[in-house]
Design goal:
The protein has 432 residues and is of the alpha/beta class. 28% of the residues lie in helices and 24% in strands.
């Protein structure tokens, strides 16, 4: 779009739906399903308190068809916006790149520059029976006809946790098999709270799925742990083991062993007339990162300065609460501050269950600079996004003396900033 707005002749080759991984298989699918799952979670809380007389039932078939309708609507908006920027779209066409040569539906097309943004595909583990019916990935989830009675989720990361919560709220008996630690790399406090959101989900850590069995459709799974092999019944399997670069249609350009396209800081490949951005480069598979890399590639082609660095990168996860975190490089003198989230919109009725979320920060004892933020609660993702920006600006906890909050709100981060500032000043011998 940036190239089109700059007056360049741009043609977009799109085999699937406009909007890519995020709209059709990733973020937006999670949003669609989690909105319903969270409604069910809240309904169960209010029912347990005697406020609601029943918990609503879900039509899974209507959920899937409704999700498709919304995705199609969003795709049509993206189509109009893209064409409005002067970009031609070849919908349903297949592109292939060989060095600096571009082929569309097998026909060579003349071009000055090429930008590869082919995204990623689900990583399919080498497990006997993985191709049986009833085994789904984010790319095939919309073909699921009903909620499985016994669902096995293979994976232990954010996507695995999100779908475990969704399907547990939809009524499935869910078992999650993680090869290592569940939500490895996430702050321990967030992992602890996430496990609470996933009450009723059986989580196996440090295990492998040795095989899936059934005639045409999966009916059983074999898990191997340190205690040996155990067989479990399952009538559905969801594979959430990460993503791999979608680069099989790219040749004549340097790639890594995993298929990722090697790029420099300008997003140029080993061929100076070919650029790549997003998941296909093996970077973090996050939509904002892909957008940023696309902007860098466009700036490089136009001979402009690239946009400013976007490190540190905020991330989020949606369960009963929204979880979000952003981390800097890490200083040796950082100290941690944490507290429960306050009561407010979206958490008032959770007070009785002690489930109002959490807020935490990492702060340099010397400078007061913010080294990281982790939080769970309504609008946690927005908090992490803004705090990542503040961290890039070098804002300290002492600057929060001038911060005025909206009340009521569920942001437990800002009072921690003020408290940390007071503590640090007091320990340094200054006024608190």
């Amino acid at each position: 779009m940036q190239l089109g707005l700059a007056g360049r002749e741009v043609v977009l080759i799109e085999k699937g739906g406009l909007g890519g991984q995020c709209l059709h298989h990733g973020c937006m699918a999670v949003c669609a399903l989690n909105d319903i799952a969270r409604h069910l979670f809240v309904s169960r809380t209010l029912h347990s308190l005697g406020i609601l007389d029943h918990v609503p039932e879900v039509s899974f078939s209507r959920t899937i068809s409704g999700m498709r309708e919304v995705q199609a609507k969003i795709a049509s908006v993206l189509d109009a916006e893209t064409r409005g920027c002067g970009v031609q779209i070849r919908q349903g066409a297949t592109g292939r790149v060989d060095g600096s040569s571009l082929y569309v539906d097998g026909v060579p097309v003349e071009t000055d520059k090429i930008v590869i943004a082919t995204g990623s595909l689900p990583r399919i583990p080498d497990i006997p029976g993985i191709r049986l019916g009833g085994v789904y990935t984010p790319h095939t989830l919309s073909s699921m006809q009903r909620v499985p009675e016994h669902l096995l989720i293979i994976g232990g990361g954010i996507m695995a946790a999100e779908f475990a919560f969704i399907f547990r709220q939809f009524g499935a008996d869910v078992m999650l098999a993680a090869r290592s630690t569940f939500l490895k790399g996430m702050h321990p406090k967030l992992r602890e709270l996430a496990a609470r959101d996933l009450e009723g989900v059986t989580i196996h850590e440090g295990c492998t799925v040795s095989g899936l069995m059934g005639d045409d459709v999966v009916t059983r799974a074999v898990l191997t742990t340190g205690k040996g092999r155990t067989e479990f019944p399952c009538d559905g399997v969801f594979v959430a083991t990460g993503l791999v670069p979608n680069s099989s249609m790219i040749a004549g350009i340097r790639k890594g062993q995993d298929g990722r396209i090697i790029v420099d800081r300008s997003m140029a490949t080993s061929n100076p007339d070919v650029y790549a951005c997003g998941d296909v480069t093996g970077s973090r598979c996050l939509t904002p990162v892909a957008r940023y890399e696309g902007a860098v590639a466009a700036a490089s082609i136009l001979g402009r300065d690239p946009p400013p660095d976007c490190i540190p990168i905020p991330q989020s996860m949606n369960l009963a609460s929204e979880y979000a975190f952003v981390e800097g490089d890490g200083n040796s003198d950082e100290v941690a501050f944490g507290s429960p989230g306050p009561a407010g919109p979206g958490t008032f009725w959770s007070v009785l269950q002690g489930h109002t979320g959490i807020a935490g920060i990492l702060v340099s004892k010397e400078s007061g600079e913010i080294g990281g933020v982790y939080t769970a609660g309504p609008a946690a993702g927005i908090l992490a996004a803004y705090h990542s920006f503040l961290m890039r600006l070098g804002v300290t906890v002492h600057d929060f003396d001038r911060f005025m909050e909206v009340h009521p709100m569920t942001d437990g981060v800002y009072p921690l900033m003020k408290y940390a500032s007071s503590r640090i000043r007091r320990e340094q011998g200054g006024p608190s």
